[in-house]
Amino acid sequence: MAGRVTVAKDIKGERRGQRAERAWRFTSACGSGPCPTVALVRRRTGGIDRLTLSLRSPGHYTGTGMFYAALRCGGHRYNRGESVPFTITVTITGAQIVNGIDIATQVNARYTNRTRKNRTRCVALPGHDAAVYIGLLLTLPPPTTGGASGQSPAGS
Fold first, then answer.
1. pLDDT per position as a tens digit, 99-124
2. The whole model's pTM is what?
3. Which of the four, 5, 82, 90, 100, has the lowest number of CB atoms within 10 Å?
């Protein structure tokens, strides 16, 4: 997925307008049509996020997750220095029917982190960030248990 940072307040190494490339993998257990939930595995700098997206309205999925970010404090680096809760919203913007199965071919997505929580004893400014993404999906052969999955062509 090709992305662009839309908000970067007090996030070290991140700035508004910065471009980001991420690999996202969507997995659906439904044989055809819209699924009530879709699994998302998203690679990002420093880790992988795994979350479930729920269908909110036709073509619109939302899910929440959390990861930990490193924080430097008092000359020490705390690998889990701050917790970062986030929301991802995905909108299907392109689809096609293949062998009678409706498959998403293009998506827009939004990542939003409204606040971070300091997990150290040091005083740190609570930052937040957000980004938008767009991507074309590659359709992989369905697993033997049924369903369809796709992965974006871009990655970090």
1. 777 778 899 999 999 999 999 988 87
2. 0.80
3. 100
Query: How many angstroms separate the first and last alpha carbons of the chain?
Result: 9
Comparing CA positions, the residue from 104, 141, 140 lying closest to residue 151 is 140
Q: Are 149 and 26 in contact (CB under 8 A)?
A: yes
Phi and psi angles of residue 96, each rounded to the nearest 5 degrees, phi first:
-145, 160
- Nearest C-alpha neighbor of 156 from the set 65, 55, 20: 20
Q: Return the closest-CA partner of residue 61 out of 107, 100, 20, 15.
A: 107
Residue 110: CA count within 13 A, CB half-sphere: 10
Residue-wise pLDDT tens digits, 45-87: 888 999 999 999 999 999 999 999 988 888 899 999 999 999 9
Whole-angstrom distance, CA of residue 132 vs CA of residue 146: 31
